[in-house]
Write a structure and sequence with these properties.
Rossmann fold; Arc Repressor Mutant, subunit A; 2 domains; five-stranded parallel sheet
């Protein structure tokens, strides 16, 4: 199931959106609601939805301000508005909005939009996993690990862009550094630092696949690299090709 978040300040419309559409049948689950833009930003950051269905005109932050506040995150965007204007449509395109639907909302039109998004997400997921497997190899695919290793992986992914060392993880999980190093290496075949680097590069691959127009320095910064040239070196060392070559030969984008 793909996660969907609803942001709408009008209670009646918000509840109609929540309960009148057969989301489960369409492959979605509604993970939350927000009644204004600021709450919407908080829930996007917390819930990490695949799709955000939002009104434009709301208290505290409008729909476009919401998108600007979470521009580092990637999700499908559907805009709802009572004011179907060219300016709104133009802004929607600039913010990568999948579709623009005017009030009063046509239920069948919304269902059709969600079916289109589901197909897009399915294709992106399949293509992404195939390419990541080809680039990083089967050894990187997570199978069933010990509870301790799973906790380390969870900790790494939660702190992916920050600078940390095994001492911090050991303190957090209340184990000795040597024990964590041994268990993790035995389970995964990687050191903790190697695994973190692979996670970062996998994230970079996903970013580039989702948005081929993204600048490489933006990708580097988002995954925790301060130097784009060093990022490119690490990317090539792990995948065998540079991120620019990846854009060109795999994604079909030339910059």
């Amino acid at each position: 199931m793909y996660k969907l978040l609803i942001i709408e300040d009008e209670t009646i419309i918000r509840k109609w959106l929540r309960y009148s559409v057969p989301y489960t049948d369409l492959g979605f689950t509604v993970v939350g609601e927000a009644s204004d833009g600021e709450e919407g930003v908080d829930k996007i950051k917390k819930l990490q939805p695949h799709v955000v269905l939002t009104d434009i005109h709301m208290p505290k932050k409008n729909g476009f301000e919401v998108f600007n506040s979470v521009k580092e995150l990637r999700f499908e965007k559907v805009i709802i508005s009572g004011y179907d204007s060219f300016e709104n449509a133009k802004k929607s395109i600039q913010h990568g909005v999948v579709d623009f639907i005017a009030k009063p909302i046509d239920r069948e039109e919304l269902i059709s939009i969600l079916k289109h998004i589901k197909g897009k997400l399915d294709n992106n997921c399949e293509d992404s996993e195939t390419i990541i497997e080809r680039l990083l190899g089967n050894d990187f695919k997570i199978d069933t690990y010990s509870v301790i290793t799973e906790k380390i992986i969870e900790w790494i992914k939660g702190n992916l862009t920050s600078t940390f060392n095994i001492h911090e993880i050991a303190n957090e999980l209340n184990y000795s550094e040597s024990y964590l190093y041994k268990i993790f290496k035995e389970d995964t075949g990687f050191t903790i630092n190697q695994f973190r680097t692979n996670c970062r590069i996998e994230y970079a691959v996903r970013i580039i696949m989702y948005d081929p127009n993204v600048k490489l320095y933006e990708v580097a910064e988002e995954i925790g690299f301060q130097d784009v040239y060093y990022f490119s070196q690490v990317f090539k060392k792990i995948t065998g090709i540079s991120p620019k070559e990846f854009k060109t030969s795999i994604v079909g984008y030339t910059s």
